[in-house]
Specification:
This protein has 56 residues and is an all-alpha fold. The protein has a domain of 27 residues. The longest helix is centred in the middle third of the chain and has 14 residues.
């Protein structure tokens, strides 16, 4: 499949497809998943340690 066709099928730019292919070649297929998987959303992160937060 060409990069142009892959970009059309995935609804991405050809530049994004090239970047994904390069990352897959260097780091393997598992590197394609989103990097934020498993992290807490910014607003859900605890900003203070529990001991300080309870005192506020």
């Amino acid at each position: 499949m060409s990069i142009v066709l892959a970009a059309h099928v995935l609804d991405l730019s050809t530049r994004q497809v090239r970047r994904l292919l390069q990352r897959m070649r260097t780091d393997g297929a598992a590197s394609i998943r989103h990097n934020a998987i498993g992290r807490l959303r910014y607003g859900r992160r605890q900003r203070f340690p529990a001991s300080i937060h309870g005192a506020l």
